[in-house]
Please model this.
Amino acid sequence: MRLLGIDYGEKRIGLSYGDELGLASPLPAAVEPTKVQRLAHIEEVIRERGIRELVIGHPLNMDGTVGFKAREVEAFAKKLTELFDLPVHFVDERLTSYDVESRLKARGKKVTRASGVVDSLAATLILQDFLDRRSPPLEPDPYGEDEYEDDEEYDER
Model:
């Protein structure tokens, strides 16, 4: 399972990578000046990392409806499917870029949008959301409860 997370934008395309470990990691964004160059960047990542599936942020309207931007992303996904013949999964991405920017500000980090860092971090959130929903639920506690809950000796330490 090698996945490429994508946060599509007209000028920048955020990218992230996920594999069997179930953790998404940011990759350098496709920030080249032309669409053709950005697609070539994505193609290189797909080839180098052995990507088998694409996960794309779907920018639904706040009320959950499909608007202009979501249709634009759907057209981009169709282009990727034609070019690379890989399965595409959509993930609701409402507010991911805002979330990333808020987190960076809270840590005192200032990042320019042109770098693509925010976009790739948004792609990481999108992909991690997908991976979390795809992974099996955690195993129940084999003891049926917290093994230290009633342990007086443990409490005294």
